Amino acid sequence: MRKKIPDANLNEIATIGKSNNTFLQRYAIVLVWIVIIIAFSILCPETFPTWLNVSMILGSKATLVILSLAVLIPLTAGDFDLSVAAVLVLSNQIIAVLNVHHGVNVWIAIVVALIAGILVGFINGIFVVKMGIDPFIVTLGMQTLVCGVILWISNSQTVNGIDRILVEWTISKRLFGISYIFFYALILTAIVWYFLEFTSAGKKILYAGRGRNVARLSGINVDKVRWLCLIGSGFLSAVAGVSYAGTTGCADPTSGLTFMMPAFAAAYFGSTCIKPGRFNAWGCLIAVYFLGTGVTGFSLLGAPTFIQNIFYGLALIVAVSFSVIVKKKQDSLVKFRNTTKEDTALKK
Amino acid sequence: MPINENNINYDEIKESTLYIKGISKTFGSMKALSNVDIVIKPGEIHGLLGQNGCGKSTLIKVLSGFQPPDEGGRVWVNGQELNFPLSPSAFQDYSMSFVHQDLGLIPDLTVLENLCIGELAISNSMHIDWKAQHKRAEEMFAKYHLKIDPDKAVASLGPVEKAMLAIVRAVNAIEQDSVKGGKGLLVLDEPTVFLPRAEVDTLFRVVRKIAEDGMGIMFVSHDLDEVMELTHEFTVLRDGMNCGTRNTKSVKKTEIIEMILGKSLQAYQIETKKEGYFKHVSVNVKNICGDIVKPSNISVYKGEVLGLTGLVGSGFEEIPYLLFGSADNRNGTLMVEDNVIDIKKFNPGKAVEMGLALTPADRQNAGAIRDLQVDENILMRSLNRFNNWKLDKKAMRSLTSDLVKQYDVFPPNDQMNMGQLSGGNQQKVILAKWLQANPKLLILHEPTQGIDVGARQQIYSYIEKAAQEGVTVICSSSDYEQLEQICDRVLIFVNGQIANELIGSEIKKDIITKLCYDSTAM
């Protein structure tokens, strides 16, 4: 005897995951961020909720936003690019060395730096795509290699005195009191977002990352996609290097390397919001500023540095775990509902 | 419904390998299992049948301890009552063993290492006597007349050897426990899905011997022929309820289908076309060859459904990937309509552009991306229709929701993750992906492997419809009944070459079987 499904249930089944994620899942991090902002504002009423502080946070983290976008692109294609921070420093160093030691016009130096980034990406691509070597290892090796190049061209010394005009256009000029660099980062995030969401090239990256075999058998040139993604990350890393050069006005041959882990952390943290389960551009931006807000708040409170590290690491682990748990729970409920009552689908 | 103590036959329980009484399982507001009773005696092979979503997998999960049943349900194995909730490895203590579809083998390790996994997992010994283990393994295989080398890596075994290894391992686990008499329940969950037709006999022989030795066997399958050939009794689940247990010899296949679906269904069969019906050759393949296939010629008419088959290793399984440009060592010429293609220089990208479509046998890894949504999967090869630099999301959504309705995908929600759909619905989505792009040539490889009866019929109808609309179809399949039902012509491969051709009403399951084997005498 067949059970008849009440129509209400059918509709319910059909609309589950109309969008796979609830509002809460998508914006939980944003809500927590707001709570943190309120909390710190109460705890440090003189220093935290000031325009100076806000603009400091927004401006100082902009370079990290750009670097996390660099990481995001090959990550979407399923590849790790561990050379991003090294390329950032290389780009910074090239600008400084050319501009300061060789008197080259700073804008031209920037172009050279960007080309260097593209070149590194291209070479990464040769080993990863053409020779089929694990990108983790290739980019790790490239990172070390590039560090060597940096030490060579800089003579292991910090180069000071980059043309002031770069610094001006990066952090001195302000809109609503916030440095231009933040707006460049914002625009870049919007571009990357649009590219990944609204162009077929961007969609192909997602397909290549989530199902390489399927993508290939659907006619997508997976090799070309991965190669271009590595070139893209090389380019954006170089852009981050330009940003860093403008922010600091100099080129330290090693300090920028510490950006690598935070850039990956931001990409992973960002995948828990806006588009949970997917790496996404706006998520990166929010992740960087969420973590930056926390760290700044703690330092204004006078907390010792280790508190900042703990906050950073804990926030990342908790955010990712939370989103995995929620997804699993939702998946099992939905899967069960789907596989029952299939005979309604039979028409004959 | 409370269990009526009077309904429980304690004598029967002592004599049964498996006695399930009143098992229910509720998830939220949905009842996955509803008061299910099943009895399996020692030496009995008991089939478990039902559509996707009928409760088969839930029942297995309850038995294996993965999910606890609702209050009130009781289960006895070998007369010993199960103490719910079971811990994950508890089933071993109750003399139960499970072999799931994915077999649970580690490809990089040897046969011997895989055999010992279970024991090593629970033992604390500081020394493993590999020599003794090796001898024991040889004895185990000899008992079932299997020629499997314990030192071979599992990855190098063929599919039937892998299945045999998994089954022998499972049986051995039960036999080891001599305290309980060395007999128990062996659950085989769709073990034949990935086995080529011809090799299923080996599996049957071994399963029959295991039953003769006194084990009770639960055999879960979609394949009615296998159930009818192998089992003594079977139970059909529908909507979570046991809608009947029957003696296998006493029923006809149509009755079983009725029980499964809850209504009668005519077996699918396309009309035999008159001679000269097909006028125009649309696909011409010359000298195609690969690793197995020797230079062969194939021509197909526009709107024809051509079947390719043979024994495993005969080459018919290689053709789809040679044609599509994804197999290694490919050679030959392919002509589609007026386009001439050098297969050596061909690749999937060009194939897709040229109007070819391919649904691979490996749905999980090569057919659909599980982690992406249905709409993303459907549009994978058609993005360029929507403005490359400014994807028209609205038009895309509109198309995907129409397609999902058109192909009867359940649930009709294009935002669902592919992985949440059943195999049959996934395959419908994959077909939708290719057919909506109006291909010239549709290549299918084992299109209904592991898919239930209802979805299978639907897929046949979509293939027939496509052919009627002028799509040329090539179907590589080891399912002879399927070929009988949907093909206009069938080519039989033997040792890499086309050995025979069957046309129209000549296409009969038994004839195909005979030709696949007979030709080896040539």
Explain what the structure shows.
The complex is a heterodimer of chains A (348) and B (522). Chain A has 348 residues and is an all-alpha fold. Chain A has one domain (29-36, 57-329): ABC transporter involved in vitamin B12 uptake, BtuC, CATH 1.10.3470. Chain A is 74% helix and 2% strand. Chain A is built from 15 helices and 4 strands. Chain A has helices at 7-15, 23-43, 51-60, 62-76, 84-101, 106-130, 135-154, 164-172, 180-198, 200-210, 212-217, 222-248, 260-270, 281-300, 305-339, and strands at 159-160, 174-175, 178-179, 250-251. Chain A has a two-stranded antiparallel ribbon with strand order 1-4. In chain A, strands 2-3 form a two-stranded antiparallel ribbon. Chain B is α/β, with parallel strands linked by helices. Chain B has 3 domains: 5-104 and 176-261, Rossmann fold, CATH 3.40.50; 281-355 and 439-521, P-loop containing nucleotide triphosphate hydrolases (Rossmann fold); 369-438, no CATH class. Chain B has helices spanning 10-15, 56-64, 90-93, 111-122, 130-143, 159-176, 200-212, 224-230, 253-261, 319-324, 348-353, 363-367, 374-378, 393-406, 423-435, 453-468, 480-486, 509-518; strands spanning 18-27, 30-40, 45-49, 74-77, 80-81, 96-99, 185-189, 216-220, 233-238, 241-247, 281-289, 296-301, 305-310, 331-336, 339-342, 356-359, 441-445, 472-476, 489-494, 497-503. In chain B, strands 6-7-8-3-9-10 form a 6-stranded mixed sheet, sandwiched between helices. Chain B is globular. The relative contact order of chain B is 0.10. The model of chain B has no long low-confidence stretch (mean pLDDT 88). The interface between A and B is large, with 49 and 64 residues.
